[in-house]
Amino acid sequence: MSTGGIDANGQVDRDGPPESEPMRRSLSRLRTVRHILWGVILLAGVGLGGFELWHRTRPDPNPTAQEMASSIVANFTLSTHTGATASDATYRGRWLLVFFGFTHCPDVCPTGLATIAQVMDELGPEGEAVQPLFISIDPERDTPEAMAEFVSAFHPRIVGLTGATEAVAAAAKNFRVYYERVEDASSPNGYTMEHTTSIYLIDPEGRFVKPYSYSATSEDIADSLRRKLKGKGQI
Fold first, then answer.
1. Are 29 and 41 a contacting pair, CB within 8 Å?
2. Residue 76 burial (CB < 10 Å; 0-12/13-18/19+)?
3. pTM score above 0.70
4. What's 190's DSSP letter?
5. Domain 65-229 bears CATH identifier 3.40.30.10
């Protein structure tokens, strides 16, 4: 066995001393670790790229007023919380405050509906020209009965609307509303819903006017509506 230097034939042995068994095992482990690290880096790159693509293509939960005005068509055909069929034409001639949500919503929907209820109270008799609508994005759980119980807790003028999955999806698409089911073991039935939180103002002709942000106060919305009801234009 060669040990380096000049071998028995007078040739230079360039291989050096042979690797010991412990050294071979150590080198093998290092190569394995290196391959694992490269694999992790590759997967991380793929995952980051996938997240970036998802982030860019995921619908914006709260688009700007300009984006909404160019694409919203306030059309729907659904069932009211009393079981009657209603469409956008049913409410023609009245201003609409439209809010999308679901009855199992823990905070956003109760807050939004409470704001709408306060708006109606602040408008007083002027509120007769305004119809607030609460449209479900969770038809699996939001039956007319469930909607009736939910909206009645906020204001007698609020109408709850629900329907078949396809009808709800069509309404949400027309209003450019984002919603998504999210699995959550701590929520009723093991899931909750993410959704757009804006309140939509629709004019008596059925045309989209503007969104009110989730953070808008009832005073701001009521003042805005009063100006519009009195024909003072800009709201």
1. no
2. buried
3. yes
4. G
5. yes
CA pair distance 134, 157, nearest whole angstrom: 11
In terms of Cα–Cα distance, which of 197, 166, 161 is closest to 179?
Answer: 197
Whether residue 81 contacts residue 114, with contact meaning beta carbons closer than 8 Å, is answered with no
Tell me how far apart the alpha carbons of residues 135 and 102 are, in angstroms, rounded to a whole number: 8
Q: Tens of pLDDT along 56-97? A: 445 555 555 556 656 799 999 999 999 999 999 999 999 999
Tens of pLDDT along 116-126?
Answer: 999 999 999 99
Amino acid letter, residue 48: L
Three-class DSSP labels, 67-129: HHHCCCCCCCEEEECCCCEEEHHHHCCCEEEEEEECCCCCCHHHHHHHHHHHHHHHHHHHHHH
C-alpha torsion 228→231→234→235, nearest 10 = -10
Amino acid at 155: H
- Rounded CA-CA distance 80/57 in Å is 33
Percent of the chain with pLDDT over 70: 69
- Token pair 């980051």: residue: 48
